[in-house]
Amino acid sequence: MLDIDRAAVAERLSRDNPWWSNPEWQDPAAAWPRRGYFDPLIELARRPVQRAIVLLGARRVGKTTLLRQLIDEANQTREFGPVLFASVDTPTYTNLGLEDLLGLFEDGCDHDPMGPRLVVFDEIQYLADWERHVKDLVDRYPRTQFIVSGSAGAALKRKSTESGAGRFTDFELPPLTFAEYLDFREATAALLEGEGPRFTVRDASGLDEHFVEYINFGGYPEVARSETIRRDMGRFVRDDIVQKVLLQDLPSLYGITNIPELNRLFTTVAYNSGQLVSLEQLSGGAGIAKPTISRYLEYLEAAFLIVRMRRVDQTARRLKRERNFKVFLTNPSMRAALFSPLAADDPAMGALVETALVTQYLHAPMFRDLCFARWSKGEVDLVRLHPARQRPVWAVEVEWSDGAHRSGKSWSPLRELGARSELRGICMTSRTVRDTLSPFEGAGSARQVVPVSWLAYAVGRLAARQELAGWNEGLPFDLLGDHPDVDPERP
Length: 491
Description:
Layout: H1 6-16, H2 38-46, E1 52-56, H3 63-77, E2 83-87, H4 98-108, E3 117-122, H5 130-140, E4 144-149, H6 153-160, E5 168-172, H7 178-184, H8 188-191, E6 192-193, E7 200-201, H9 204-217, H10 221-225, H11 227-231, H12 233-254, H13 259-271, E8 276-278, H14 279-286, H15 290-302, E9 306-309, E10 311-312, E11 324-329, H16 333-338, H17 349-359, E12 370-375, E13 378-385, E14 392-397, H18 408-421, E15 425-430, E16 435-437, E17 447-451, H19 452-464
Parallel strand pairs: 1-4, 1-5, 2-3, 3-4, 10-12, 14-15, 15-17
Antiparallel strand pairs: 6-7, 8-11, 9-11, 12-13, 13-14, 16-17
Helix pairs in contact: 1-4, 6-15, 17-19
């Protein structure tokens, strides 16, 4: 078999790293909008810890663009030393190991390999046993900051927890938050004032309209920026994202042979995102055996297509046998792309509104402490448990209505949960109403009515910047300013 000349490979690597020959070169990606996760990622890279960063996330959420922007920043500041970028799936690099690429780096860009430098390997899942190779490099080059990324989340997440203990730090990049979507649409300044943690809404109805738009078309940077892609959203999501995961990533990782079966389950879950489901329901709806359903759900979750939320009862006790649970799409717009966009008043919009709010928390450490409460006489959509005491801190009932808060029956589950758990606050969302109501006796110190678009913006903004930690016990609705049409002095 003929070999590829080393000089040709070196030439290709040099073209992929133009800053080696031109220190003033600037990546076009530097002019693109930065995601809110940029600053936390570069701060993580600056930490003097001998660990590789593993950038995790679904397809097309902007991982490579984020890395290119980080590299451009590093080249401008020179703070990391020489920089190497290599996409492992490049055909020219076939049969080359990571050590080979480092050798070409040292030849093409003269530097001390034992000194500080930044090495980025994109699409790392295409390298067999990547975690073992990266761990070896981290041990051998303690002053090199390694960052690896890839789209096959199942492979990365599974393998990064099986080996390389103490040598990897995972950094998950979810789909665009609502706050990021507004930034990419260049609509933030017209709708809101202030960066947070508190902000004021300038145009409540406009924010509500953009929230519906986000539910149908948000999540992916390319869709947010391109009207052409938005007009063909179904093909973009179905063919470029979902089908590649279902047809390529998961079968190759787990040896799945019945692709139509997996596809049928995912379609069923997507259509019912935010709804209460059970293995029995999914088995009957998709025609798949329950043990297989359980495995498929694990695969879909590992591939960043769905997340599951656990259930507690009215005492916040986790049930030993969870027959019912909630499954959410990681990006609500996948539902619209697979079926059709929804109008604001569509009956199915309520479940997608809940999906959109839940997914704003995806990157926040507190996400693992979120659950929903359900018992024989009531249900509360979102409950935050204290991570140590496992007692409820606050609760939110997600409503897509401006009238639900006027009904005592609508408040009844929140009132019961609050009375049993001494919640610090309870909240019911609305479409446009912002109000503060008298607390129930013995059921929390605050009772708020908040437009769900406001809450989604606040949570998404702080979660992306990793500034939500300070609100672990604080109330998420305390982040919000006053409605322009509501008297702030109203009791």
